Amino acid sequence: MFKLIIKRLLQAIPTLWIIATITFVLMQLTPGGPFDQEKPVTPEVKLLIEAHYGMDQPIYEQYIRFIKNRLMGDFGPSYKYIGWDVDEIIAQSFPISLELGFYALIIALIIGVPLGVFAALYHGTKMETLLMGIALLGICLPAFVLGPLLLLIFSTELGWFNTFGWNVASDRVLPAVTLGLFYAAFIARLTRSGTLDVLKHPYIQTARAKGLKESKVIWIHTLRSSLSPVVAYLGPAVAGMISGSFVVETLFFIPGLGSFFINSAFNRDDTMVMGTVLFYAVLIIAFNLVVDLIQIWMNPKIKRD
Amino acid sequence: MNLRFIATSLLLLKIALSLGCSPAQTNVERGILEQELYIGIGTEPSGLDPHLVSGMTEHYVLLSLFEGLTTLDPKTLEILPGVARSWSVSEDGLSYTFDLDPEARWSNGDSLTAYDFIFSYQRILSPELGAPYAYMLYAIKGAEAFHKGKIQDFSSVGIRAPNPQTLCIELHSITPYFLTLPTHFTWWPVHKSTILKHGAMTDRISKWTQPKHFVGNGPFALKSWRLNNMIKVEKNPHYRAQNSVQLNGIHFLPINLETEERAFRAGQIHLTSGIPIARIDWYKKERPKNIRFDPFLGVYYYLINTSKGPLKDPKVRKALAYSINREQLTEHVLKGGQKPAYHFTPPNTGGYTSNDCFSYDPEKARQLLAEAGYPNGLGFPEIEFLYNTSESHKIIAEAIQQMWKKELGVEITLYNQEWKVYLSSRQAGDFDIARSSWIGDYLDPYTFLGLGESDSGNNHSLWQDSVYDEILSQATQSLDKKMRFESFQKAENHLIEAMPFIPIFFYVRSLLIDESVQGWYPNTLDYHPYQHLSLERIPDSI
Questions:
Q1: What is the pTM of this model?
Q2: Among residues 91-150 of chain A, which lie with CB inside 8 Å of chain B?
Q3: Does ipTM exceed 0.90?
């Protein structure tokens, strides 16, 4: 296990370097710069502004300085938000995305797992069709449809929740549900197929033959193995919930990192683009490693060198 | 078992919802009780340093945090005293002496003196700072030369302070609208020791605007600032005219138009920065009291690349302009009270309203096109139309595309580019016709007509005309208002005759406003000093 961790960490170094370099090159190739605006500044002023950020130096020097600064953990100042450093923005906004992702994950698991298990138990009946139909609906209904729908019903019409923001406890409910339901649907389908698979195993029959209560057979003996595909899916899902919550963050006007990530590209806020890309890259690598470790713990049959 | 599960889930959901608890009181109601305004500003400001920003969003916030030498009456746009309680002008109109209010203080209690203004103007004019709007101070003698690095000694720029309460400004030429300039944020003072505590005078990357460091001189002081969430300001106890301020605080919310509209309907904000086109009809019908269309100092126009193919010919450009039915466009497509534009400078710009320089005349348009060698559009090469990606620009472009096809037989292809790509294409002259707009910086026709000058960095049409430059130069040099306006009219006619810019409509500022908001007057500069605002409970309004 220790070897696996070391190996993965070593693999991460070239991966991050390649990601950083590709992002750097793409940003150089993109037309338009961070200081272009409707009323353009004169070329002289533009040069002076760029000098503040070292953009007046030759490209290879910019690249070397850029890699060096990132190695030192310095993400630099944002080009767009004057007076803010990229790491300040990440420190301010990431905990919000993390919190949102956490609630969404809880909702996804609380709804997805039981839905999947019941569907498997009622395999071949109309109940299964109904439950899986609900799950399919969840997958098909994107956040930008579900979100406004929830907002319309629960905020504008019923007035139960605020229409935007992340200021009071109740502001968490609608975004977390919107984000969580999509993943709940996936988890339900994965749980169902996992459970169906496990139910066929002889040890389940043995457990039943021993006279164990059906609920114990399902929730204790079956679930641990049947959740294996769900856990494998959780790595990218959690990363997706945290990093891909852009739509939900925009809809509900939540100051999380997702909205900065997308807007930084539109603003040509190069330091912000690079900061968020690398931050997410590290996050996804870490999540995948954690998921692998959990899987080994859950199923010792998975051998790794 | 499944029924039990479903029942339990429903119970849990109910508990979760009740925990979520409906907000007992809306922001609008709370705001009225506590005199705190909730206002949507559309997008996150790029900063709070008045010398480094350039947009309207920033203006909305900065107006609460700073104050210049003069300010404007929001009803009439007349000049009112600001930090300067009075001023005098020399006979030749070139020297202004401002007498500063001895009560003027910074938000940390320090006295605000004429030396602060000198420091501030030196800062914004220092080339190293890279201030995007430094040219707003070019009216001062020597300011342009200093900003362009031609002179190094700031003492040769025409600003002096004989004593802490007196500020003298010398102009390089007569500028009849000079007193309106200090109402712009580029002219507002910044706190010297705060700036220097967080870096050098010309450091762009500085932490001084963060709430724990911020010092301003406006009616409000910065309380908190969370990006993409909220900027909160509260009454500044050191403000010189503290008794005139009725609000206790303002929440600036950088939310987009759709969220603003939803928030307004749910009673969460008092004011929005605009209205989504799709919702205009509903508000007009259901809540007419809450919708406002105020005239605004801006023109929406089509920019023509005068170096490209048939567009080199002014007759072709005029044919395109004459064949657009602007009334139809504003009434049926835009619906937001925009005014059709038959000249370039918006009406009542500093008292100047141009005559209509042309009209909707498809017959004349066809004749002009025929004279240019394209009768009924025959042989007219395909040209492209560029707009920045946006639903409203697309709708307008499609309507005009149809008009040109129907009236002139001219085919154009529409294409859109993401904002920054569009800006870079426009700057590089890589377009045939492009959507554009221009918002005035101050109340004088020159802020619009100057766009057509040969050396204007904002003239992307590549049209240059020394006669036009000469007429405009005469207009700006003249002290007599009547003569000035006559020269501007001449310039306007000349510009429309050449038609490098096709005016389409004049902007309005459309917004949603709660009945409780008092003191928000329509004016073309969209200038609303917050010390004039208050919130009052109106019976039956909530």
A1: 0.86
A2: 92-93, 114, 118, 122, 127
A3: no
